[in-house]
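User: Predict the complex with magnesium ion.
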Amino acid sequence: MEYSIVIPLFNEAESLGVLQERIEQVMRPLSCQYEIIYVNDGSNDNSLERLEELKKKYNNIESISLKSNRGQSAALYVGFKKAQGEWIITMDADCQNPPEEISKLIKEKDGVDFITGIRKKRKDTLLRRISSQTAKAFRYIVLKDTTQDAGCSLKMFKREIVSEIPFFKNFHRFFTFLVRLKGFLVREVYVAHNGREFGKSKYTTFRRAREGFFDLGGVYWLKRRILKYEIERG
Ligand code: UDP
Ligand code: MG
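Assistant: Here is the predicted structure with magnesium ion placed in the model:
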């Protein structure tokens, strides 16, 4: 298996059919082996029923449902553990990350371990964009993290990374930083971004900022304490 596409979702029933078909349009012509792993993070809309319908129509879908809503990071982690592919691709379920951009990531994979998007013309509210820029400044001041767009969910990386980095709630906001910290090679590429056509955002700016500050402290500690070693022999 070459690629596992891992998609966390919480109440995204409306977009799943369109998303799946758009992914197929991109992946099918590549004639490679791939799977799409939907992780239903305790949705209480029709997401589960939609996934069951899609599984009947497409034979490369895996789905896992969490008992209750545990957050995007928990859903991603569960998907990573299930993935069989040599490379894992992540994206949101709401079509804000255009699936067509997967081919761009694939083209950029030579010589690196981790490819992450920079949303070129980000289609989010001004408040969201300002809060992201503020968080980016704080990440640079505290961690010296130079990641251009930590919030872009569209990423592709070697599966071995999963067993090398620490996971915790909201790790996804520091994913690229953690990967670099462990010495993996990262490439950042510009990708398109869409407004939310279906459903609505699961975060408020206040919640993101509050949790972001708390997590920044934790990641600062991790930066200083993470195990770093090179094995010389054996
Ligand atoms: N998500 C999830 N569990 C949550 C919150 C979000 O699985 O508790 C999923 C959500 O369905 C989407 C992705 O994480 O696929 C990103 O969420 P969202 O689009 O709301 O974030 P935004 O684009 O507004 O940053
Ligand atoms: Mg979104």
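The mean pLDDT is 97.
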